[in-house]
Design a protein that fits this description.
- The complex is a heterodimer of chains A (89) and B (381).
- Chain A has three helices and five strands.
- With 89 residues, chain A is an alpha+beta fold.
- The termini of chain B are far apart.
- Chain B is built from 16 helices and 13 strands.
- In chain B, strands 3-2-1-4-5-6-7-8 form an eight-stranded mixed beta sheet, with helices on both faces.
- The chains are: A alpha+beta (89), B alpha/beta (381).
- At the A-B interface, helix 1, strand 4 and strand 5 of A face strand 5, strand 7, strand 8 and helix 14 of B.
């Protein structure tokens, strides 16, 4: 299972402060499993069509999955970080 | 290093910048670059305060300050440019006065208005670098787009609760803000600092990093943050860095969309969250409904710690738990939903209607409006 690290805002929404362990393999499946487990995160992570929202970025072991040369497949203990656009100033 | 020429610096400036002259990366030449530089800071709030103070102290010759807000008591927890005596005063004029007290030799230009599509190009072209200390997504996308089209560096920073982000965009053909985040979230979906809060020092931390990046760009020294996103979580006190690349789908960098064709009203109005007068009630109407003991349920969707500060006696269901707990509510009852300022509650109206609730409205302006217009004794936060 991969380790999923959420923005602090999302941790508060699900009442879970520690990194999550989510199964799935491909990033898209991991996120779908995450949303199935915590439906409150759905509007933040996924579009109505099921794609990723464009104000959220996903980093596999520190690398933006949009620019990975290898498939976005998460192995055991791979870290998937979710970074959220914020506008506060 | 060279000698200080009396035509370049006043005798007092020689002393003022002595610590800079001692740095080989700055020196007399660098200080002259700083003096000749023109920097626009958009936003004179939490980020703007340290940005402006450090740029003024460093001797950046021309500093533009853009903001159209007035100082409020709730600003003072993080906006160090202002003091209690400044409450009610225009931020840009107050900031200008403070910066001139700090460094009287500077040219400080106050722009007392908000950035919009009609003024952005003509304003930004007068500056070398723009620093993004805005507090909303519309302004951040506008800053990015105008900087991209005018080929000006955009020194970005943003904060929320205990976290901050910063980067530098539009440098040496590098990525822009839209490469990192192609589009903003629908209005109201994410909490802002007014709703979710922010630890004051996070503004100081990120704003100081932004000021550092501006100075490095002017001096052309060090490794700029362009192509990198720096994030910090001050609770864990961990800084992280992520590579930012040009996005192959970027509407600016790749698709070369013109500035004129970009529409910002789309960022303000989202069909998902569109609300009409039927969706909203005013605080006066709510008070009237309570007086008449009308049959409705008041839902407070804030967090428990917000509820503890002040409440209107509503049923507390935090926004994040709403979806799970909606199943226990009667869909045929009348509901009035409120939060702090009316953003989360606006989102909730749509959510509840999608789930089949027949009568849901939200309180315009939230409990903050109630405290202002109905019950001034209610603790504001």
């Amino acid at each position: 299972m991969a380790i999923v690290q959420l923005p602090r805002q999302f941790k508060a929404y699900i009442g879970q402060n520690d990194p999550l362990r989510i199964s799935g393999g491909k990033v898209s499946i991991v996120i779908k499993n995450l949303v199935a487990q915590y439906p409150v995160l759905a509007p933040y992570l996924l579009t109505d069509e099921g794609g990723f929202n464009s104000f959220i970025n996903f980093y596999k072991n520190g690398k933006d999955i949009r620019f990975l040369s290898e498939p976005d497949f998460l192995l055991e203990n791979d870290i998937l970080e979710i970074i959220l656009a914020t506008a506060g100033g | 290093m060279g000698q200080i020429n009396s035509t370049d610096f006043l005798p007092s400036e020689g002393i003022r910048y002595a610590r800079h002259f001692s740095l080989s990366e700055v020196g007399i030449l660098g200080q002259k670059k700083l003096k000749a530089a023109r920097v626009l800071c958009v936003g004179a709030g939490g980020l703007g305060s340290p940005i402006l103070m450090y740029l003024a102290a460093a001797g950046v010759g021309t500093i533009g300050i853009l903001d159209n807000d007035h100082v409020e008591l709730s600003n003072l927890q993080r906006q160090l440019l202002y003091t209690t005596d400044d409450i009610g005063k225009a931020k840009v004029q107050t900031a200008k006065n403070k910066l001139l007290q700090l460094n009287p030799e500077l040219n400080i230009i106050a722009h007392e208005f908000f950035l919009d599509k009609t003024n952005a190009l003509s304003l930004v072209q007068n500056y070398d670098i723009v620093v993004d200390g805005a507090d909303n997504f519309v302004t951040r996308y506008l800053i990015n787009d105008v900087c991209f089209h005018l080929k000006k560096p955009n020194v970005y920073g943003s904060i929320f609760q205990f976290e901050g982000q910063c980067s530098v965009f539009n440098v040496m053909g590098g990525p822009c803000y839209r490469c990192l985040y192609p589009a903003p979230p629908p209005p109201g979906l994410l909490q802002n600092c007014a709703e979710g809060g922010v630890l004051g020092v996070v503004a100081g931390l990120i704003g100081t990093i932004q000021a550092t990046e501006v100075i490095k760009l002017i001096l052309n020294t060090g490794d700029s943050l362009h192509g990198r996103l720096l994030t910090v979580d001050v609770l864990s006190m961990r800084f992280k860095e992520y590579a930012v690349q040009k996005n192959a789908d970027c509407c600016l960098c790749i698709q070369k969309q013109s500035f004129e064709s970009l529409a910002y009203h789309d960022l303000l109005v989202c069909p998902y969250l569109a609300s009409s007068a039927d969706d909203e009630i005013t605080v006066q109407t709510l008070q009237d409904m309570q007086r008449k003991a009308m049959d409705f349920i008041l839902l407070d969707i804030r967090e428990p710690h917000e509820y503890a500060i002040c409440n209107l006696g509503g049923q507390l269901i935090p926004f994040a738990q709403l979806e799970k707990k909606l199943s226990v509510l009667d869909k045929n009852k009348n509901y009035v939903v409120h939060c702090k300022i009316g953003e989360r509650s606006r989102h909730t109206v749509n959510l509840m209607r999608e789930k089949g609730f027949v009568s849901v409205r939200h309180l315009t302006g939230g409990i903050k409006a109630w405290a202002k217009e109905i019950d001034p004794t209610l603790p504001a936060y």
